[in-house]
Amino acid sequence: MLIAVDVDGTLLNTEFDDLLAQREIEAMKAVRQAGHVLALCTGRNLRSVEGLMESSGWYPDDLPLVLLNGATVWGGQPRQCLASQVLGRREITELVQLFRRFEVVPMIYGTDDDGGILHHETSRVNNILASYIDKRRQAVGAIHEVDDLLAVPLQEALEVGSIDEKDKVLALSQVVREKLGDRVKVINTQSLLGGGLYYWAEVFHGSCGKGAGLAVLREHFSDLNGPMVAIGDNYNDLDMFAAADFSVAMGNGPFDVRQQADLVTRPVTENGAALVLEQLAEGIFPPRIG
Fold first, then answer.
1. Vertex 40, ends 9 and 77: CA angle to 5°?
2. Which of 112, 127, 175, 236 has the highest count of CB atoms within 10 angstroms of its CB?
């Protein structure tokens, strides 16, 4: 089987924890030892995932990665980039201008070739975004604060995004879709910070998505003949659910995300993902929750 697992809100209780719990690590090891392909499928970029996995003490050099919601896909041994979808200068400029119009502070995620640097402006940020930036600075680093993002000579980027109040984010996202059309893909997810009142506005190349990233991996691992299982907790996991043969939502996920899964497991605080992975490693398919 190809088993795709989200990170934040699924393997990691990001609101409180900075490292993966040992039970989740052992469950992922067991899945691999059983002969399945385990892939991390996350909104994080390469630098962030590498920091998390290395700090957690488990980072196999052949672990497949679908990153930034499918903007980049890594696989093979040693691991190499299998696919990368970037925003061009035109899209970066238009997006920064639209974010500013809605008074949502934009952030630009650079490409992996440029070190995965996060660029953001010195303008006043809300408390939730400030908390995210502080956490990222401590855990990942590679943050550049600038006076004007459009003065930074970035010709390519993997993402333009931010965190803000839900209504502002949804209004901005609607206009981005109207103005830029299928050149971009807008993904809105509920932030794990802020008690559900804050949402992400993340904009990627139009062909991005976790489902599209998993299609790249499925083609790379051409000898896989078992079902694909997807485990996630948020709206950016829905196209991964649609691509999978069996989907599992975390008990802590939004109601409408849980509604679209084949199975709802326990919340991340109760090791719900590890419980499913342990069953898959033991040959129990489909998994079940008592």
1. 160
2. 236
